[in-house]
């Protein structure tokens, strides 16, 4: 039998497990122990939070590599290529390396059922364990306590921010969400909190675990470090990344160069492009907190703002749309083909009308992200901008289209 390609592996993993998400550590932990991949580096940092996780990973990677550390990163989901999820010393893992890791997992799991995400997490840990890393940076996929990433005992845990998201899994209470996320902490080890007023769930869980809770603007702050250059990263994510760098390197805060932050660009996070002379902003904002930050960054200009939006049906769609409604003058809601959890363009259109969006401009329903983007470009005049937001599955195809054009 010929070895499977990466696309064949991913297709198999998507079809094999009966549920997309199955939280719990027993199954994946058992396979990880057999694979001996629970210590992926000399130092491990686990990062969770409602928003700002990817930015914190990217900032921490840049800061540590600037200090000469050998760094691996695991993030999810990906925008275009699966390989984006596993990065070793700034380079995406190859198809061959991922496939070889998948094959090892397949042979080790026996009759243990693993989800798509659990397979990916184990593959990342295998590749990192073999890469002689100084630091492994692991982004939690969902929640924290029962996420597959939490099988690793991290030396430093980070919670970037807390807001409502994934309520079907985590509940609609901020204290409960905070408790779930703070559970990535370990006894006697630091838990960094990006929110300057942590919810009680974080404070209580850190105390119950016996972790050392360090709060942004109380126990550490951006002001301790060199002047931070202009960047598009959330301030709380940057503060946590700088503090983690300080703790890992042992360098005085004033000696850590912040210049690498000016070069950090996280794909799909307020990413700017130009298509046929039209300025385009791509942002994966898919909850009210993230959309509020996006709206703040979209400084009003003379031209109109046109919005392409596609979202998962289980998200707070109306809460995510509302911060953008005062700014947008033409809406292009879209379905997301092949995503069973996606809201239809009609669903989003109805919510837009109910929220009064039509009073500011017109609404044009579209069958896919690409068709919505093309229609938005056709409607854009001189000085207008197009913003694309709502989901990785909305931004990804459009970003790929822009890069291949």
Automatic annotation (TrEMBL):
Domain Mur ligase C-terminal: 268-392
Keywords from the UniProt entry: ATP-binding, Folate biosynthesis, Ligase, Magnesium, Metal-binding, Nucleotide-binding
Reactions catalysed, as given in the entry: 10-formyltetrahydrofolyl-(gamma-L-Glu)(n) + L-glutamate + ATP = 10-formyltetrahydrofolyl-(gamma-L-Glu)(n+1) + ADP + phosphate + H(+); (6S)-5,6,7,8-tetrahydrofolyl-(gamma-L-Glu)(n) + L-glutamate + ATP = (6S)-5,6,7,8-tetrahydrofolyl-(gamma-L-Glu)(n+1) + ADP + phosphate + H(+); (6R)-5,10-methylenetetrahydrofolyl-(gamma-L-Glu)(n) + L-glutamate + ATP = (6R)-5,10-methylenetetrahydrofolyl-(gamma-L-Glu)(n+1) + ADP + phosphate + H(+); 7,8-dihydropteroate + L-glutamate + ATP = 7,8-dihydrofolate + ADP + phosphate + H(+)
Pfam families the UniProt entry points to: Mur_ligase_C (PF02875), Mur_ligase_M (PF08245)
Cellular component terms (Gene Ontology): cytoplasm
Enzyme class per UniProt: ligase
Signal peptide as annotated in the record: none
Gene Ontology biological process terms in this record: folic acid biosynthetic process
Function: Functions in two distinct reactions of the de novo folate biosynthetic pathway. Catalyzes the addition of a glutamate residue to dihydropteroate (7,8-dihydropteroate or H2Pte) to form dihydrofolate (7,8-dihydrofolate monoglutamate or H2Pte-Glu). Also catalyzes successive additions of L-glutamate to tetrahydrofolate or 10-formyltetrahydrofolate or 5,10-methylenetetrahydrofolate, leading to folylpolyglutamate derivatives.
Protein name as catalogued: Dihydrofolate synthase/folylpolyglutamate synthase
Species name: Porticoccus litoralis
